[in-house]
Amino acid sequence: MAIRNSAKAVIFKDGKVLLTKNLDNEGAFYLFPGGGQEMGENLQDAVIRECIEEVGQQVEVGDLLFLREYIGRNHEYAEEDAHVHQVEFYFTCNLVNEFDAKIIPNHPDSHQIGIEWVPIEELLQYRIYPKEIKKFIINHYHGERSPVYLGDIN
Q: Rounded distance, CA 151 to CA 154, Å?
């Protein structure tokens, strides 16, 4: 199986971060908007396209914030994800227009049931993947330095 690149958006506003809300057999979980890079597409264009698909909003892409690998066989869902190796690029992004909750995403992920602004100070209380990124997001929001390369984390 090939290594897959994924471009993700980290969108802050008023002490909150925008996440997609998803549902599986364990309940609700949250992800950063974004997804797979397509052949011939640069990472910035991928995150723009994915935000339109998943949150229905145009974004302006800023700096690369984090790079995370996910090697499925090394983590809690190894039985299902043994064949997965994904490299995720997390970019700071800003909404181009004022957020409009009435806009419905045109191509949400299969488990996606909505989008939600989650308070930064409450991130540790939410089931967010990757789990380890929560502390780095909180640190970044408070102006603390974090490594860019986070390694193979979940």
A: 9
